[in-house]
Design brief:
GO molecular function, one term (chain A): protein transmembrane transporter activity
Largest interface: A-B, 18 and 12 residues
Number of helices of chain A: 0
Helix content of chain B: 55-70%
Distance between the termini of chain A: 16 Å
Largest sheet of chain A: 19 strands, mixed, barrel
Radius of gyration of chain A: 20 Å
Family (chain A): Belongs to the Tom40 family.
Strand content of chain A: over 45%
Number of strands of chain B: 0
Radius of gyration of chain B: 35 Å
Shape of chain B: rod-shaped
Number of helices of chain B: 4
Keywords (chain A): Acetylation, Ion transport, Membrane, Mitochondrion, Mitochondrion outer membrane, Porin, Protein transport, Transmembrane, Transmembrane beta strand, Transport
Order of helices and strands of chain A: EEEEEEEEEEEEEEEEEEEE
Number of strands of chain A: 20
Structural class of chain B: mainly alpha
Main location (chain A): mitochondrion
Membrane topology (chain A): Multi-pass membrane protein
Distance between the termini of chain B: 96 Å
Oligomer: heterodimer
Structural class of chain A: mainly beta
Shape of chain A: globular
């Protein structure tokens, strides 16, 4: 779900992480009434579509491989249960050019309680993992988010707590994780269109620490962001809303310590019955993700990813009910 | 014909060492086949065949990459846009069908 990055990944500011923040407020030219900027987290999850107050990720759909089936049953306006089956290969990190895939299957049972002020989500998987997420609005401006994962395997259990404070035209976030992970971020609106911010993190377990800065400029039709971190990451992205249904996005990521460069281009078509996202990468990767509404409450999902360099092909399909 | 392809590049095969002289280079046919022009022509033909093979192979590879990428990125888009257009047409038709009667009916 949007807004909940895996614990540990957010603060370490890696190429894939470094998210915080979001939301576009209303615009006024009065400098004492600047809009509230988007949370720092979401800045890096680029390609945020320009529909005001609704952010969607164009360049990073949740691609998957295998079959996925999700069923959500609402028992109450606030409480619902979810059943989910997944069958497919899971990739194992392997040294060498060959990707190691092992077919796995699991069933996941979950319960969600969703209230305007409090959201509780819990999931249990048949491979022995338990995840829990809490999002609570303590006051109008202060909110608490926590997530935790317990697992059978040693060293795979972790938890994280975030405190978000939203001021008139700024946001701050404090993040505490297990393994003495500590992070803080701040973002401020400078003009109705421009906002800038910074983050600091310290990971005690890996003895890493870093600082990062970000800037975001937005318009009715486009959003441009830039981000630099002391972990060596430089990222820039640009999203343009070409029409009501179409957005195009492009992304550039450069790590000046490891000299890794990645550029990607993508499109996002939001039609009435379907949503199609496609992306082409400079690593020789082409991917597409289609979500189609077959009926009321019935969604069909198709995911494809072709990596020409590694000759790795992943295709997945799924059904989401409810 | 060994090819010494440099990193990322293609190069023609090395020149072969010159053939040793045939013993009876007196007959006209032998003289002809041993002449410079013929051997140069033979080399040119081999090089052409080699280059054509490489070109064909890289064109084939490029066509495969372009084709599969097109299939993944563009074909679903065309299909979905077509469906959306059909839906719009249908709705327009329905609208025009339902729009007409209320105007003509209560004229009794």
């Amino acid at each position: 779900m949007a807004g909940f990055p895996p614990p540990g990944a957010t603060i370490l500011g890696d190429a894939a992480a470094g998210k915080k923040i979001d939301e576009v407020g209303k615009k006024k030219v009065d400098y004492f009434n600047l809009p509230c900027p988007i949370p720092f987290e979401e800045l890096q999850r680029e390609a945020i579509s320009i529909v005001p107050n609704l952010h969607m990720l164009s360049l990073k759909p949740e691609l998957f491989e295998g079959m996925r089936f999700d069923f959500t049953k609402g028992l109450n306006p606030k409480f619902s249960l979810s059943h989910s089956v997944f069958m497919g290969p899971m990739e194992l990190p392997s040294q060498g050019a060959e990707t190691l895939k092992i077919p796995t299957a699991h069933y996941e049972f979950g319960a969600n309680f969703i209230d305007p002020k409090l959201m509780l989500i819990g999931r249990v998987l048949t491979d022995g993992r338990l995840t829990a997420r809490v999002k609570c609005d303590l006051t109008d401006d202060l909110s608490l988010k926590a997530n935790a994962q317990l697992s059978n395997e040693p060293n795979m259990s972790h938890g994280m707590v975030n405190f978000d404070y939203k001021g008139k035209d700024y946001r701050t976030q404090l993040q505490l994780g297990d393994g003495s992970l500590f992070g803080a971020s701040y973002i401020q609106s400078i003009t109705p269109h421009l906002s800038m911010g910074g983050e600091v993190f310290w990971a005690g377990q890996h003895l890493k620490s870093g600082v990062g800065y970000a800037a975001r400029y937005e318009n009715d039709k486009m959003v441009a962001t830039g981000q630099v971190a002391s972990t060596g990451m430089v990222a820039m992205s640009y999203v343009q809303k070409v029409s009501e249904k179409v957005s195009l996005a492009t992304d550039f990521m450069y790590n000046y310590l490891s000299r890794d460069v990645t550029a990607s281009v993508g499109y996002d078509y939001i039609l009435r019955q379907a949503r199609l996202r496609g992306k082409l990468d400079s690593n020789g990767c082409a991917s597409a993700f289609l979500e189609e509404r077959l009926n009321m409450g019935l969604n069909f999902v198709l995911s494809a990813e072709i990596d020409h360099k590694k000759s790795d092909y992943k295709f997945g399909f799924g059904l989401t009910v409810g | 014909m060994a090819s010494q392809a440099a990193r990322g590049g293609v190069s023609l095969p090395e020149k072969r060492p010159p053939k040793r002289q045939q013993p009876d280079s007196d007959t006209i046919l032998a003289k002809l086949t041993n002449s410079e022009i013929v051997s140069k022509g033979k080399r040119a033909a081999c090089d052409t065949a080699y280059v054509t093979k490489r070109l064909l192979r890289s064109t084939g590879k490029a066509a495969w990459i372009a084709g599969t990428t097109f299939l993944i990125l563009v074909v679903p888009l065309i299909i979905e846009m077509d469906r959306d257009q059909q839906l719009t047409e249908l709705e327009l038709q329905q609208q025009s069908l339902l729009g007409a009667p209320p105007v003509g009916a209560p004229q009794k």
